[in-house]
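Aim 2 progress update. The chain analyzed this quarter is reproduced below.
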Amino acid sequence: MGAANAHYYGTRDPLGARGDFTTAPEISQMFGELVGLALTDLWHRAGQPASRYVEFGPGRGTLAADARRAMATVGLNPPVHLIETSPSLREHQARAVPGAEWHVDLVGVPDEGALLVVANEFFDALPIRQLVRTAEGWRERLVACQDTLFLPVVGNTLFDPVIPPAFRDAPGGSILETSPASVAVMRALAKRLLAQGGAALIIDYGYDGPAIGDTLQAVRGHAFANPFEDPGEQDLTAHVDFGTLAEAARAEGAVVHGPVGQGAFLEALGIGPRATALAAAAPERADAIAADRARLTGGEQMGELFKVIAVTAPDWPVPEGFAA
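Predicted structure tokens:
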């Protein structure tokens, strides 16, 4: 999964109507603006420390551009650091966010100044491992190649000792997913927040786990595809286990808020008044703006499947959109 996605993202722009999928920032400017204002509000209440804006997997740079524009309206103009490995996407980001600096991981981001971090649809693309319940016990699901066909197979090593007790007697065929890569990124991020101060908003589709279920999926041309076909030519993702991410952050001493649904989060930040203001400024787009809001917040669209957690340094305030 890691190798396939590295090739996939490194060789194309996967976003938009001509690509394979569309993310929230590409749907409406309201998304990035509200994320930027949420971070700015938190920065104000934290005492306005010297800060840096950091985004993991920034796509075309649309979210960063919208967030930075909103931040500037209320007096925050932080340096922008983008964690991106794709040459193609870096070209888009350079046009959208002039003056940004790029890094392949968090290590390259300077270690002075508080961090205002966003990761929107980043963790879902990190590689997972799957453990499957067989008649002999829990074993890892591996990938085999037969001629030119990739197929899932069951390995020989037993993993029962690492399975949470609540799942050890799950029905045959049950799958438990883990993402060591996601945990490693979250722990590294939490360490930096503790050392430098700051906050991170993690937005993605997922669940408050751990839980049983096979969520590995492929998307191509805005439709689901077989994840074992055409490796490197389609987007591979898995639902994010927010519960495990939260525990990884807490293990480093960070404070975690949420998860809350994306819809409730955006409504709490004021997407309603913002949509009204945009429609008043462009009446001919009122229906489209209302549709965009519904897509971002509706329970049957992105509003509930997509969730948000905030990870903060212990001495930082509770972010807007989360219960105290």
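DSSP finds ten helices and 15 strands in the chain. The first helix runs from residue 2 to 10. These observations will guide the mutagenesis experiments scheduled for the next reporting period.
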